[in-house]
Each structure stands twice: as structure tokens, then as C-alpha cells.
Structure to design on (291 residues):
């Protein structure tokens, strides 16, 4: 069980640099062939300063790819083997391109205890407001994680 | 509002398919996304976690839905994108994604388009549902 006192707690800050490789790799594995995600010339021809972020690029910098943040969650009683992705919500406030630097301090904004058919579980909502190098919020990432009870992982 | 030649309420989005998915695909998604959770790549770990074998990253499914969302608009015009994961996806399954335009309206002299999205696996099992909001022009 996660102590309810963790509601409102934040972690980090974490800073990441968006690279062209991140954009291309994600587009490629998803089968997205739009040249604007792959070739700088195509992006510039479309009036963009660099390769644009595909809609789900922020996952590259989110909980599942952040070992330090995963360790923080484990320390409060939410270890990786008991986590399942329940919901994902992105709000896009300013465009994001390769070359941008992002900084955020993810915060626990929701913590609910539930009881399901396979026993108790918790819903943890993590909100990450990514600021770019100009200080503007570019993406707000809200992720709902299902934290299964200890018994389920036995 | 003025008539326009853009999307209309009820318009279907093009259907996208990916698969049959393989464990190798999950491994490639892990590398591309930085999500190395062994739940998606290591059968023994998945079994120890109480699952019946490895499952696809939820974000792989959302990534495909993101390709659909991109069909509404140019990169950078999405405003909101949310997905709820309904069921795990296993190796061997083929994912099929689609959607429908649910609203078209004007806001601050921009054309706003909203759509609902879905992803289904084998046997039509619903894997994820979602919504997307894009601002055109």
C-alpha cells in the first residue's frame, strides 16, 4: 500500500534533450513513414524548424523510461512488476521539436484505493508538466498507473 | 460557421493494422521508447508478475492510435490525446485501429476537430479506446 501522504509529492526535476534519433526511432517502430518525422529537409520544407515530435514521443521521457523515477515509486510501495498502464493523457500546449530541452518534476496528483475481483489495487495518477528551454509548458503528461496488490504479484 | 472542405462529423478515419505482432516487435519498441520493463520481453518475469506470458507495451497501442490522430492534422496541431487501456495484447495478435470524427467546430478562428479512436486485437477484442482533439489552420 502506498501511504496517502504521498499525494502531492513531486520528484526530480528531470531534464532531457529531444533528439532526432528519438523521433525517427519511435516513428520507425510504429510504422509511421511521414517524411517529416524522418528527414530534416522534409520537416523544413513543411515550415518546421526540425523534426517534430510524434504524438506519443513524451513516453520516451516518461515514467517507463525513467529509471530514477521508477526507483522513487518502488520506494513508496509501487514496484515495477506490480505496475500496469491504465490510462494516458497528453495535452499539447506548445510545439515540440528535436533539439528542444525539456525539464519537469513529475507529481503524484491522484491516489485512490480500490477493490477489484482479484483483490485490492491502487490507482496512481502522475502528472508531468514538461517545460521547454524557453520556460513554456509544451506537453502535460497525465498517466494513470494501476498498482496491483501484493497478492496479485505473489 | 462557414462551410469547409475538412473533416465532417461521422467521417471514419482510415483503418491501420500492425501485426501479427512478435516478441521481436516488443523488443524493438522497448529500444525505441526506452521502456525496458521485462514484462514486455521476458516470459519468466511476466509469469512471476502473475501474467500469462509477455504483453505489448500499452504505449505501442497508443502510438498506433497516434498515427491515426496524425491523419486528422499536420504535426503540431494536436491539442489533446487520451487513451484508456482495456486489455493486454499478446504476441501473435494483429492490432487494428480506427476512429470516427465526433465534432467539428470553430474556436478562436481555428477549425477544431474531435475524434474517437479504438484499437482491437484478435477476435475483435477491444484493446484501447481514446479521444483526440486537433486544431487545424
Amino acid at each position: 500500500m502506498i501511504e496517502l501522504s504521498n499525494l502531492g509529492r513531486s520528484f526530480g526535476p528531470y531534464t532531457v534533450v529531444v533528439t532526432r534519433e528519438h523521433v525517427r526511432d519511435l516513428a520507425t517502430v510504429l510504422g509511421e513513414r511521414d517524411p517529416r518525422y524522418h528527414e530534416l529537409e522534409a520537416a523544413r520544407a513543411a515550415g518546421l524548424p526540425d523534426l517534430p515530435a510524434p504524438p506519443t514521443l513524451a513516453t520516451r521521457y516518461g515514467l517507463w523510461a525513467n529509471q530514477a523515477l521508477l526507483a522513487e515509486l518502488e520506494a513508496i510501495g509501487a514496484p515495477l512488476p506490480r505496475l500496469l498502464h491504465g490510462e494516458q493523457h497528453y495535452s499539447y500546449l506548445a510545439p515540440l521539436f528535436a533539439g528542444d530541452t525539456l525539464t519537469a518534476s513529475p507529481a503524484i496528483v491522484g491516489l485512490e484505493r480500490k477493490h477489484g475481483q482479484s483483490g485490492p489495487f491502487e490507482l496512481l495518477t502522475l502528472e508531468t508538466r514538461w517545460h521547454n528551454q524557453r520556460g513554456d509548458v509544451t506537453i502535460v503528461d497525465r498517466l494513470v498507473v494501476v498498482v496491483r496488490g501484493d497478492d496479485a504479484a505473489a | 460557421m462557414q462551410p469547409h472542405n475538412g473533416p465532417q462529423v461521422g467521417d471514419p478515419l482510415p483503418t491501420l493494422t500492425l501485426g501479427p505482432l512478435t516478441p521481436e516487435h516488443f523488443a524493438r519498441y522497448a529500444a525505441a521508447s526506452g521502456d525496458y520493463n521485462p514484462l514486455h520481453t521476458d516470459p519468466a518475469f511476466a509469469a512471476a508478475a502473475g501474467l500469462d506470458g509477455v504483453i505489448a507495451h500499452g504505449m505501442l497501442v497508443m502510438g498506433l492510435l497516434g498515427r491515426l490522430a496524425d491523419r486528422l492534422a499536420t504535426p503540431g496541431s494536436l491539442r489533446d490525446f487520451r487513451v484508456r487501456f482495456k486489455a493486454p495484447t499478446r504476441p501473435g495478435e494483429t492490432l487494428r485501429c480506427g476512429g470516427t470524427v465526433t465534432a467539428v467546430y470553430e474556436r478562436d478562428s481555428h477549425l477544431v476537430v474531435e475524434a474517437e479512436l479504438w484499437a482491437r486485437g484478435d477476435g475483435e477484442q477491444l484493446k484501447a479506446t481514446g479521444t483526440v482533439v486537433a486544431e487545424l489552420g
Remarks:
- Residues 4-153 of chain A form a domain with the Thiol Ester Dehydrase; Chain A fold (CATH 3.10.129.10).
- Chain A touches chain B at residues 25-26, 28-32, 34, 36-37, 46, 48, 52-56, 59-61, 64-65, 80-82, 84-92, 95, 148, 152-154 (CB under 8 Å).
- Chain A has one domain: 4-153.
- Strands of chain A lie at 14-17, 83-92, 101-104, 107-116, 119-131, 137-148.
